[in-house]
Design a protein that fits this description.
By secondary structure, the chain is α+β, with helices and mostly antiparallel strands. The protein has two domains: 159 residues, Jelly Rolls, CATH 2.60.120; 78 residues, Arc Repressor Mutant, subunit A (Orthogonal Bundle), CATH 1.10.10. The chain has a four-stranded antiparallel sheet. A hairpin with a 3-residue loop joins strand 5 and strand 6. The chain is globular and about 55 Å long.
Length: 255
């Protein structure tokens, strides 16, 4: 692997680390391609690699034998896979896989990752702050599904996806949106038609185009915003105005 003078990434969690901490991680990272439906975390199996996505959207999914699959959270360039490792276990019953867009990620072996976390308090603190934001997101999803109608729930998830991509076009199937919102597919389809008629979105085959984000936020109400504010408070930027910063790397690093 080459040894570039400058290391670049769009992963804002990595960029939240102090320069000297990031320099410790960079030699152990490799840049890999991510494709839609690629599994990042296999449920109930030891985690072998950790991924810091640089784009796209990954879903964290619970698969219950009787009730089917339900999305419990999402992450993209603001996050990292396998938060279970930071909480003292090497596996989780939930699957994580790429749901939206092809992209890249910076990958590190789980054993090396844990060694860095265990021996560096400042790295551990930043990553545990991310765990906090993920827990807030999951709690907000529970409250939203209990208190809000499907149109507000769908607006929230579209905003969350919009925060994690470039541009206004999101690759989302109706099937995925129904899983995201704990709603039946026909209800999602009807809701999309209503939102399109109101000028909030444009619904295409396998895609949704955001046309009026401000109105989407109005529709979502206070179901949206709490996890996002927590991320910005604890870690850094979240949304389309992300920053790409260089780091002078020491030793091997991603191409």
């Amino acid at each position: 692997m080459s040894q570039p003078d400058q290391f670049h990434t769009t992963n804002t969690l990595l960029l939240a680390l102090a320069a000297e901490d990031l320099a410790l991680i960079v030699p152990h990272l490799s840049r890999v391609k991510l494709v839609r439906k690629q599994v990042l975390v296999i449920p109930n199996e030891p985690v072998e690699h950790v991924y810091f996505p640089e784009g796209g959207i990954a879903s964290i999914v619970s698969d219950m034998a009787r009730s089917g699959r339900t999305e419990t959270g999402i992450f993209g360039r603001e996050g990292v896979s396998a938060t279970c490792l930071l909480l003292g276990t090497d596996r989780t019953p939930h699957e994580s896989f790429m749901q939206v867009g092809d992209s890249t990620a910076l990958r590190i072996d789980a054993a090396r990752y844990l060694d860095l976390v265990q021996h560096n308090a400042s790295i551990r603190t930043v990553l545990l702050r991310y765990v906090q934001t993920a827990l807030i997101q999951a709690a907000q999803s529970t409250a939203t599904n209990a208190q809000f109608r499907v149109e507000a729930r769908l607006a929230r998830w579209l905003l969350m996806c919009h925060d994690r991509i470039d541009g206004d076009e999101i690759e989302l199937t109706h099937e995925f949106m129904s899983m995201m919102n704990s709603a039946d597919r026909s209800g999602v389809t009807v809701t999309l038609h209503i939102m399109e008629g109101a000028g909030l979105i444009r619904s295409l085959r396998g895609r949704v185009v955001i046309r009026d984000r401000e109105k989407l936020e109005e529709l979502a109400g206070d179901s949206y915003g709490v996890p996002e504010a927590e991320y910005r408070r604890l870690i850094g930027p979240l949304g389309q105005a992300h920053v790409v910063l260089p780091l002078r790397a020491h030793g091997n690093g991603p191409d």
